[in-house]
# Entry
Amino acid sequence: MLKWKGRGNLVVEMIIYNLRTISLGLQIGALLIFVLSLVVLKKKSKKGGITGHGKIATGGYVLALLSVLFMLYSAYNLIVTGHAPSVIYIHGFFGTIAMALGFIFVINRWSWKTLKNMRIQLALWILTFIGGILLYLTFTGKLS
# Structure
């Protein structure tokens, strides 16, 4: 539950808390979809394989992109009020790179779709995801 720190309007803090929770849910959904896309990649059927993997991973990218929209309001408020810890900027930087690489893969630029680049993308996204969970737990008071 939200721990009100008394720094501002309780209604605004409740909205930001809800936006963070929605964003986290979307990110978890994106992670599950990415895992499903890896399972589909291993299948040799017509609906499986690389084509199925690409379509499912695109759905995961869309969910991740939606979650960013919810994150932006929270990050903007922290930055404007001067309460943003430096880790927010690091998370945002790596998240931006991960989303940009994901966009290149989604728009189907095959010359970039090498196994090496996809592994870099996966590692970058997972590190950003873990950082986001730690930020969420810290901001909600579940992690000191």
About this structure: The chain has a mean pLDDT of 83. The helical segments are 10-42, 49-81, 86-106, 115-139. The radius of gyration is 17 Å. The chain has one domain: 10-139.
